[in-house]
Write a structure and sequence with these properties.
Length: 1078
């Protein structure tokens, strides 16, 4: 058992952020009601025993759950709390937040079996809520079976799980009751968890191997001789039943809005979360890969609700990324890049050890947790999406804390050095107790995020007590019927928390649903509330969070709305009821009566026309050579040039491929199609990585030649595989290669312009990096065309890590400026003077603090004032790094350990504290001299500046680079040689922007980037969209509706409303913007 626990400790990984301190005093949002006043006298206390503790049972500290529901139909929700080593308790709500313990009189079993989750449901349809309790059994002396308490209607219950076929014994976590087959009764999904064993390690093929104790079970509600009986339909329904699933979270909702209830399962450890889409024929299809680009890695809690009021259900999953900087630096974190690659070969999808806030985009979900900064709440359990302040937006409440932290790296290090051989079997208990005592304890405040709309979440203090707890299950309800939602929390080793909502002067409506026969089993019903210009949407479901179930009443906060136009209820049978003339600030009951048919609008993915080109990227893992670099620089293509190469008046396409893929030439036909032209020289040049290209007449013979810029981080500078190429056109689209020695660097951008007005196109060749020395600025070149097929170097200069370049006259003086963008640099502007020199005017133009990770810039007169403006595609805000002028991301470059190898030491702001981007392990592996200085992770957790690592002043460091801006931006030219910047809309910040196409007032963009290291993660939330410039600002218009995994790189316009979008390592599509949904 101890050895298994060692493995458990080694594979746990988490991340963190430092909470802002010394915030101004805030209004008390919730009152922590003392248990001596409320009567809620309950504490889930644990007593470690030799046979049962965190080492013997890895979920020992997972705690208990909460169920809220009206068991006696008096209009007040009552409380059930589960315990692990003590009896469960049932409390009757007597009004005014006073509760009476009726556990004994209510005939609730008072044994001390290990209870976990709890759910309230009217299982026998008699109008009274029954209670289903999950247990852990058949393990380490735990012999319990799950319990079903049938409500007798007189505040007493009778346990009848066996009679109903629900007396499961194993690793039960939680149950959810819902009508999966639309036959009018409540079926049940039983979520179970696993423990580490040979059955839970391996590839994804293990999903098909059933396990009687750990596998999930789907039960169908049937009738046998007039008695309700639940039968196991797991296999037949397509549900996994294996020990690979470490099920800790469940949500049952209509994810795809087709009228059928689907199932989301949150799994701990290496197994992916499951999304079972209901097929409507009593079967499900596991579809997580179809709907999500990535999920949380250690999912422990889940909730589903509409967070942006677009009537689509969004989803939050919780993980264990710390928000305190010191805890973050001494806790396990993300998988290494190598382990991440290995997991992919085992069949697992991408996971990250942080909370995921998945925004429903109709056909798939996009994680915006980093954008909303809801990604780090430490070891978190129960997420509740509820409108606590009645402003009309669902806020987020999170319980967190684990009593002992087995992912503390100093503890894991201690554990790995214990000599287990010297402990005899009889001394195992002593050893286990010693190990448990060594685990650190960190009490935490539970977290509340206030949703202000537009994906803006603000962390708020719950009250001024700042109470730290180890909290697990939680549920919400308006327990005192005063029009706002209260919260009950089950804590470990201390009294349960009752949070009284102190919201005042707010508007609301609460809705109680009943079926025709007054049945209260309405789980899955949808409620739409309409006002003059708004629509709010809630789904009636009770099981949410972790181990818990909340009120079955539906609560709408109304903000400033004083009049409700109508309420529409869509029932589970596909019919609807509409009610009008409803007063606010009351609780109403809507009973299903005469209904109308309701038709679900099918979400049909637009099938874009595929263009006959697929980019293929070669595999090169940059970080194996440069361990401290944050991104790959070996996968930057494809390149594209649109020009008339065969002089027929039609624009053709040259597309450069990845290493090992030849460039191609497509000639446009008279009917607007594209024909691939075989070109021998292109086939011969398939060994190059094409990153950019331009068409220009190098030999002044009247046709367009091609300059193809090579790149890649896999060869040293100067090697032939990095050499650029010039292809000479014979006038009709036949190309030969110019026999010339050209630059051999990791190219970033090439652009041409006749800057000296001599009639010949000159060149700028910007380089991205020095291969093998990430961060150092390479030389780039301005070349003057001498008119005889030769170029003269006008300027050789370290301009930056160039990704894009443009020529334009920004100040309307008749001379061009060279505008540059790249990594770790501002958007730089160089003016060509009358004296024939290039002068750096970046500061004068107001862009000296625009340092970002810029991917693309476009120049256009956006506001039609006669002066050219700039729009820039950056990394975006959905990113772990946060940057500003006051808190920049900093990269220090030097050979800090005198090993003749460049080191990149990056610091970034982590909730108010600067932390190193590289972990202690990665830094000491790269620079062993640090091992002596930091003998523990605790010591390393105090590092917040470069001088804490090395005895070297910042001024002595070889080079320091900064990032002040990570948002994609537009800069308006005021006509006085100065630019004023404004961020693009929030939706455009969800991912990187890699290219723009400006078409009058419309700005088409594409993005997504999958080549940051695992610690930063893929930026995969937005493959593209359309913006509109209006009234001196830019607004989001619509999505390009590209596949969720699309990683866009280039856009060109083919014809009216038709645009070709190229991806990196994937397919290319022709987008007809007229067919896009708004």
């Amino acid at each position: 058992m101890i050895k298994r626990f060692v493995l458990f400790s080694l594979i746990i990984i988490g991340c963190s952020k430092e909470q802002t301190k010394n915030q101004p005093a805030e209004k008390m949002l919730f009152n922590d009601v003392d248990n001596t006043i409320s009567g809620l006298n309950f504490s889930n206390d644990l007593n470690e025993k030799g046979t049962l503790n965190i080492i013997e049972y890895l979920y020992y500290y997972n705690g208990g759950g909460v169920a809220l529901g009206d068991i006696n139909n008096d209009g007040l929700d009552d409380i059930y709390l589960t315990a692990n080593q003590k009896p469960d308790k049932l409390f009757l709500n007597e009004g005014n937040l006073k509760f009476k313990d009726i556990s004994l009189t209510g005939k609730i079993n008072q044994d001390s079996t290990w209870s976990t989750g709890v759910t309230m449901v009217d299982i026998n349809n008699d109008g009274f809520l029954d209670i289903y309790v999950c247990k852990v059994g058949n393990y380490k002396g735990l012999k319990a079976k799950n319990e079903l308490y049938i409500n007798n209607g007189d505040n007493t219950f009778k346990e009848k799980a066996k009679a109903y076929g629900l007396d499961f014994s194993g690793f039960s976590t939680q149950a959810s009751f819902f009508d999966y087959d639309q036959d009018g009764d409540m079926d049940m999904y039983l979520l179970n968890h696993s423990v580490h064993s040979t059955y839970s390690y391996g590839n994804t093929k293990l999903r098909t191997k059933p396990n009687a104790l750990a596998g999930d079970v789907l039960y169908e509600n049937t009738s046998v001789n007039g008695q309700i009986k639940f039968i196991d339909v797991t296999k037949k329904a397509g549900i996994y039943n294996s020990a690979l699933g470490y099920g800790l979270a469940i949500a049952t909702s209509d994810i795809n809005n087709d009228g059928l209830i689907d199932i989301y399962i949150g799994n701990d450890f290496h197994e992916n979360d499951y999304l079972y889409i209901n097929n409507g024929d009593k079967t499900f299809t596991e579809s997580s890969a179809k709907y999500f680009n990535h999920t949380s890695r250690f999912t422990m809690g889940v909730d589903i609700a509409d967070i942006n009021n677009n009537t689509k259900l969004d989803l939050i999953t919780l993980d264990m990324m710390p928000y305190k900087a010191d805890v973050f630096l001494k806790s396990g974190g993300e998988d290494s890049d190598k382990i991440n690659e290995i997991k992919k070969t085992f069949g697992f999808q991408q996971q990250y050890a942080r909370n995921n806030l998945q925004l429903n985009k109709g056909r798939y979900f996009a994680d915006v947790a980093l954008l909303t900064e809801t990604h780090a709440t430490d070891w978190s359990w129960s997420p509740l999406l509820l409108d606590y302040n009645n402003d009309g937006f669902n806020d987020l409440y999170v319980t967190n804390g684990i009593y002992k932290r087995p992912n503390d790296l100093d503890y894991i290090n201690y554990l790995s050095n214990v000599n287990f051989a010297k402990y005899e079997a009889s001394k195992q208990d002593t050893l286990e107790q010693k190990l448990i005592e060594t685990m650190p304890m960190v009490g935490l405040e539970n977290v509340l995020f206030q949703n202000n709309g537009n994906l803006d979440f603000i962390k708020k203090s719950i009250n001024n007590k700042h109470k730290t707890t180890y909290s697990n299950g939680a549920a919400y309800s308006d327990l005192d019927n005063d029009g706002d939602l209260d919260i009950v929390v089950n804590n470990l080793n201390e009294k349960a928390t009752l949070l009284e909502n102190k919201t005042t002067d707010s508007k609301y409506i609460t809705i109680r649903l009943l079926e025709k026969n007054k049945s209260i089993n309405t789980n899955g019903a949808k409620v739409y509330l309409y006002t003059k210009n708004k629509c709010f949407y809630k789904e009636q479901t009770t099981v949410r969070g972790f181990l818990s179930s909340s009120t079955r009443k539906i609560h709408f906060g109304l903000g400033t709305i004083s009049k409700i136009d109508s309420i529409k209820v869509v029932w589970n049978d596909g019919t609807k009821s509409i009610q009008k003339d409803i007063a606010i600030n009351q609780e109403i009951t809507i009973q299903k009566g005469k209904t109308l048919a309701y038709s679900y609008k099918e979400t049909v993915a637009i099938k874009h026309q595929k263009f006959d080109y697929q980019h293929t990227e070669n595999i090169f893992l940059d970080y194996e050579r440069e361990a401290l670099m944050p991104e790959k620089l070996s996968s930057e293509g494809p390149s594209i040039v649109q020009a008339d190469f065969n002089a027929d008046g039609l624009k053709d396409l040259f597309i450069g491929g990845g290493r090992g893929q030849e460039p191609v030439l497509y000639l446009q036909t008279k009917i607007g199609k594209y024909r691939l032209k075989n070109t021998t020289v292109f086939k011969q040049d398939s060994m190059y990585e094409d990153v950019d290209a331009i068409a220009f007449d190098i030999d002044a013979d009247g046709d367009l030649d091609i300059y193809a810029l090579s790149g890649g981080n896999d060869y040293k500078e100067g090697e032939p595989m990095l050499e650029d190429r010039v292809y000479i056109n014979d006038g009709v689209g036949n190309f030969t290669k110019l026999n010339a020695k050209l630059l051999a660097t990791n190219g970033g951008s090439v652009s041409s312009f006749d800057f000296n007005k001599d009639g010949y196109q000159d060149l700028f060749i910007g380089n991205r990096s020095i291969p093998g020395a990430y961060g150092l600025t390479p030389f780039s070149f301005i070349l003057k065309n001498t008119g005889d097929n030769n170029f003269q170097v006008v300027q050789k200069r370290r301009f930056g890590m160039i990704t894009d370049s443009k020529w334009a006259d920004l100040d309307n003086d008749g001379f061009a400026e060279l505008i540059l963008a790249g990594d770790w640099m501002p958007i730089r502007i160089f003016s060509y003077t009358k004296e024939g020199k290039f002068e750096n005017k970046t500061k004068e133009f107001g862009l000296d603090k625009s340092n970002g990770m810029w991917n693309v810039i476009k120049i256009a007169d956006l506001n039609k004032d006669g002066f050219l403006d700039i729009i820039g595609g950056n990394t975006g805000e959905n990113f772990k790094w946060k940057a500003s002028e006051k808190k920049p991301v900093k990269m220090y470059l030097d050979d800090f350990d005198n090993s003749t190898q460049l080191n990149q030491i990056i610091f970034y702001d982590y909730f108010g504290t600067d932390v190193t981007f590289a972990s202690k392990d990665k830094l000491t592996q790269q620079m062993p001299i640090l091992k002596k200085k930091f003998t523990s992770y605790n010591a390393f957790s105090k590092v917040n500046a470069i001088t804490d690592l090395f005895d070297k002043d910042e001024q002595e460091i070889l080079e320091t680079k900064y990032i002040y801006e990570l948002r994609s931006m537009f800069y308006l030219n005021d006509g006085n040689n100065h630019f004023a910047g404004e961020a693009l809309p929030k939706k455009a910040q969800i991912s990187t922007i890699e290219d723009f196409y400006i078409d009058n007032d419309e700005i088409i963009y594409t993005g997504n980037y999958n080549d940051f290291v695992t610690e930063l993660g893929n930026l995969d939330g937005n493959p593209g969209g359309i913006l509109r410039f209006s009234n001196n600002t830019i607004q989001e218009q619509k999505s390009l509706q590209l596949p969720k995994e699309f990683s866009g790189r280039k856009i060109v316009k083919l014809s009216k409303n038709n645009y070709l979008v190229l991806s990196n390592n994937g397919s290319s599509y022709i987008i007809d913007t007229q067919k896009l949904d708004k």
